[in-house]
Amino acid sequence: MRLTVEAEGAPAQRFVPPGDGAALAAFCSFAAMRGFGAVHPLIVLAERLQESGVRMGPLTMFYDEAAEDAEDLEKLELAWQDRAGLAEALAGLARALEADLEAAALARRGGAEGLAEQARAAAEFLAGAAGTRARMVYRL
């Protein structure tokens, strides 16, 4: 799996975090599943981080970059969000993982080693990117 962070602009800017962003993609996928009754270390991590003030909303907006039909194209377009908000959520994720030993342990138990590094790298990319919108897309 590969996660790409895109920033709107001419030309469009694209960034793939270290490790193809696989840990970040996994975390975002599980974070989107909060509230459905499933239990997984990355869901518990997302809940813990949200309780500590990390905004999960921006981290749960992503879509498959391989659009196969008009519906996929529409959903891909809807994945665009505020660049600064996404950058802050990613930076908050990285800070929380670096400061909270229990959060870091949940990431490891969930198989998301490298999550802090990937989130920080994506946040730094977005902080220096042009444009007001950004999105995260994945490729299986």
What does this protein look like?
The mean pLDDT is 95. The longest helix has 17 residues, at 83-99. Strands 1, 2, 3, 4 and 5 form a 5-stranded mixed β-sheet that branches. By secondary structure, the chain is of the alpha+beta class. It is built from 6 helices and 5 strands; from the N terminus they run E-E-H-H-E-H-E-H-H-H-E. Helix 1 packs across helix 6 (115-128) and helix 4 packs antiparallel against helix 6 (115-128). The protein is globular.
Summarize the structure.
The chain is an alpha+beta fold and 140 residues long. It has helices spanning 22-32, 41-51, 70-78, 83-99, 101-109, 115-128, and strands at residues 2-7, 13-15, 62-64, 81-82, 133-139.
Cα Rg = 14 Å
Q: List the uncertain runs.
A: none
Roughly how much helix do the residues carry, as a percent range? 40-55%
Question: What fraction strand?
Answer: 15-25%
With helices defined by DSSP (H or I, 4 residues minimum), what is the helix count? Answer: 6
Shape: globular
Number of strands: 5
Determine the mean pLDDT: 95
Major beta-sheet overview: 5 strands, mixed
Determine the structural class based on helices, strands and strand pairing.
Answer: alpha+beta
Spatial separation of the terminal alpha carbons: 4 Å
Spell the H/E element sequence: EEHHEHEHHHE
